[in-house]
């Protein structure tokens, strides 16, 4: 059984923004974590290429939608490689294989008598690719997410009988583990309690989409098509792309991690579609919050969009990951502040963790012939051992419950406590007394060992920094030994050589 985790499939109207980087980094940390626990993981990301929004974007550029999509999809793909994202599947919804899955799925839904022809009238937001419940003053109303006017639509569309699944959807969303965080669940429960309405799954005015078999001028509604990307991703790269293959190879998804704006699609429409097709529903839909910048919504019109690539080239991967994972509580909205970013990186990574490693390794090298001290006299119980053990236990618990910020804080707290232990014990004074040598050895060994555990714990969150820390200790993660085993106390080898210390993270300057 594989653990299947997905990011949203991003619209290719533009290159990746901080919001898409945020979701993908969180998924990456979870995927890495699960792999370290020994689970088989399928980490899916990709792009959502069809629909009116993309068709118009390409038209505005004066190029064919396919050409536009090829270009932007490639940018996404390379972007995730640059961010060291460990995805297993990258799905493009314009691929032929995906079309096969959509068609097969549609046949199943039709066979369940869930498709009929009707007239769709309403106000549509092209940015969201969604009909909005009739707002007051519809003609001047702007979508709060896209700040664009809605468009009136009145056309013959095929409909999906969502209303038929009222009871089943109620049961699913009432499962406490299905929607997280809890506040988001309440929004959905409230929405569903008003009664589910059938929704249109085809369009006649959009040529850039998958043709609906049997209806000449209809293409599938982009969301009907895109959600299925999660399924087709599983059986992509195989010769027989069928629903059965995807089901056998890993469906259902264990977690869809998405932004709160697209929760209804994932927690209501999608499960109903799947039940109709006789498939299992995802196990969890996690709706994270929105990122703002210096307290303001990011937008092109405000001119305050933060280009994630600039952050990456300027600061590197780990600092951005640390800020997004540790400073934002997963599920809540978060704010990106330049000053706070610099402070957090300097305090947490450079000072608390980086300096701890550097100064302890320097002391050990100086006093013990460039080596880790021998541990002959090390008492079996000590304060740091207890703290490290508790920290690892809490870390695992927090990670398992998707409290990634708290998990990151567990590691940081261990580093703070290790610094305190060092300062309280003052080995630099004790070393001057000959008979205190065994005690100094014990202190230094404990601090180095705690630092090793800190570094190894960081592996899913900050893979690059984690490797650097452990290399500095002459100890690397061993792929063939369980990660949890390696997080046990006492594995740093006495008398092993300590490489010459170099800073593992550079301090940042305010600009
Ligand atoms: N294509 C759909 C998803 C289809 S999934 C089958 C889509 N794409 S999107 O590119 O517009 O959005 C992708 C994700 O980015 C969404 O989860 C959305 O919530 C998220 N974000 C967009 N702006 C954001 C922030 N400012 N902050 C955090 N996430 C944000 O929707």
| Total strand segments | 15
Question: For this entry, what is the oligomeric state of its chains?
Answer: single chain
Distance from first to last alpha carbon? 49 Å
Put simply, the count of helices is 19
Strand content: 5-15%
Described by the principal axes of the CA atoms, the overall outline is: elongated
- List ligands, each type once: 5'-O-[(L-methionyl)-sulphamoyl]adenosine
Overall pLDDT level: 94
Biggest sheet: strand arrangement: 3-2-1-11-12-7
How would you explain this protein's 3D organization?
There is one protein chain. This protein has 511 residues and is α/β, with parallel strands linked by helices. The chain contains 19 helices and 15 strands. A 6-stranded parallel β-sheet has the order 3-2-1-11-12-7, sandwiched between helices. Helix 5 (166-174) runs antiparallel to helix 6 (182-193), helix 11 packs across helix 12 (317-326) and helix 14 packs antiparallel against helix 15. The longest helix is centred in the last third of the chain and has 30 residues, at 338-367. The radius of gyration is 26 Å and the shape is elongated. It starts with a strand and ends in a 25-residue tail after the last helix. The structure holds 5'-O-[(L-methionyl)-sulphamoyl]adenosine. 5'-O-[(L-methionyl)-sulphamoyl]adenosine binds next to strand 1, helix 1, helix 7 and strand 11.
């Amino acid at each position: 059984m594989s653990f299947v985790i997905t990011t949203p499939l991003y619209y290719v109207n533009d290159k990746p923004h901080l919001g898409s980087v945020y979701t993908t980094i969180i998924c990456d940390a979870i995927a890495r974590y699960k792999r370290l626990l020994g689970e088989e993981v399928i980490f899916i990301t990709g792009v959502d290429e069809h629909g009116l929004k993309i068709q118009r974007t390409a038209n505005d550029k004066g190029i064919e939608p396919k050409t536009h999509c090829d270009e932007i999809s490639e940018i996404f793909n390379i972007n995730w490689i640059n961010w060291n994202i460990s995805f297993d599947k990258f799905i493009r919804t314009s691929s032929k294989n995906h079309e096969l899955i959509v068609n097969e799925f549609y046949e199943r839904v039709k066979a369940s008598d869930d498709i009929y022809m009707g007239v769709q009238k309403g106000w549509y937001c092209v940015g969201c690719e969604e009909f909005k419940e009739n707002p007051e003053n519809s003609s001047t109303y702007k979508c709060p997410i896209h700040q664009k006017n809605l468009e009136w639509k009145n056309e013959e569309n095929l409909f999906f009988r969502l209303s038929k699944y009222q009871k089943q959807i109620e049961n699913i969303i009432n499962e406490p583990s299905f929607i997280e965080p809890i506040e988001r669940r309440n929004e959905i429960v409230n929405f569903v309690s008003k009664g589910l309405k059938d929704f249109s799954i085809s369009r006649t005015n959009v040529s850039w989409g998958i043709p609906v078999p049997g209806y000449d001028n209809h293409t599938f509604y982009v969301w009907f098509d895109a959600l299925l990307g999660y399924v087709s991703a599983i059986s992509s790269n195989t010769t027989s792309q069928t629903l059965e293959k995807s089901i056998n190879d890993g469906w259902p998804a264990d977690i869809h991690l998405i932004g709160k704006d697209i929760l209804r699609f994932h927690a209501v429409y999608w499960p109903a579609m799947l039940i109709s097709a006789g498939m299992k529903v995802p196990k969890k839909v996690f709706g994270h919050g929105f990122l703002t910048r210096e307290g303001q919504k990011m937008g092109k019109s405000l001119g305050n969009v933060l280009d994630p690539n600039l952050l990456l080239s300027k600061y590197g991967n780990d600092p951005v990951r640390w800020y997004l994972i540790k400073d934002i509580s997963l599920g809540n909205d978060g704010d990106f502040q330049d000053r706070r970013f610099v402070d957090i990186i300097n305090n947490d990574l450079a000072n608390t963790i980086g300096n701890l490693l550097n100064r302890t390794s320097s002391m050990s090298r100086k006093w013990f012939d460039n080596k880790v001290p021998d541990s002959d006299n090390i008492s079996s119980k000590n304060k740091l051992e207890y703290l490290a053990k508790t920290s690892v236990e809490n870390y695992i618990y927090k990670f398992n419950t998707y409290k990634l910020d708290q998990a990151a804080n567990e590691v940081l707290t261990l580093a703070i406590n290790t610094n305190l232990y060092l300062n309280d014990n003052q080995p630099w004074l004790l070393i001057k007394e000959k008979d205190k040598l065994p005690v100094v050895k014990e202190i230094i060994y404990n601090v180095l060992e705690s630092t090793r555990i800190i570094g190894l714990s960081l592996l899913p969150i900050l893979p690059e920094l984690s490797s650097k820390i452990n290399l500095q200790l002459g100890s690397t993660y061993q792929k063939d030994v369980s990660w949890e085993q390696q997080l046990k106390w006492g594995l740093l080898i006495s008398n092993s050589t300590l490489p010459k210390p170099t800073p593992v993270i550079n301090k940042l300057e305010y600009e």
